[in-house]
Write a structure and sequence with these properties.
single chain; 150 residues; alpha+beta; Ribosomal Protein L22, Chain A; three-stranded antiparallel beta sheet; globular
């Protein structure tokens, strides 16, 4: 199993991972791209708006047959994937609080989605045959850094 994408963590940082989430890789990559560089509070606010389907996630990759949304271009409302990302953001926030960091100054420095393990299943077909049904799972990670704001 792979570790984090960075080798050394900054001095004032907190991190978290979710391993083998059963979500779409395409949705996870686009969500991570949208959240990267945001303040933690605004990232959680965007997640809540996506869960209520008020604000779409803007897609930058995997754009085949992705409809445009008013005011943002091509995008979707990936609710299932966003729930997993919201769990990750709350986990990172709790880790930062435990380290004594100020939550209002946290910025998502690293957030990524990569392929994890594979679920291998077989579906029965006609005449006693079986068809394979393999599904990739997703690893997501986030590292927040406390930036000045005193």
């Amino acid at each position: 199993m792979k570790g984090y994408t960075v080798k050394e963590f900054p001095e004032k940082s907190a991190h978290g991972r979710i391993v083998d989430a059963d979500i779409s890789l395409k949705d996870a990559v686009n969500i991570a791209h949208n959240l990267r560089g945001m303040k933690l509070s605004s990232a959680k606010d965007l997640g809540e708006r996506v869960l209520r389907k008020e604000s779409p996630i803007k897609y930058f990759r995997y754009l085949d047959s992705v409809s445009h949304r008013k005011g943002s271009g091509p995008g979707r409302y990936p609710v299932k994937a966003m729930k997993v990302f919201m769990d990750l953001l709350s986990n990172v926030e709790a880790n930062a609080e435990f380290k004594g960091m100020q939550v209002e100054n946290l910025v998502l420095r690293v957030i990524s989605a990569t392929k994890g393990g594979m679920i291998k299943r077989y579906r029965p077909k006609a005449y006693g045959r079986a068809g394979q049904f393999f599904k990739d799972q997703i690893n997501i990670e986030a590292i927040v850094v406390e930036e000045g704001g005193e």
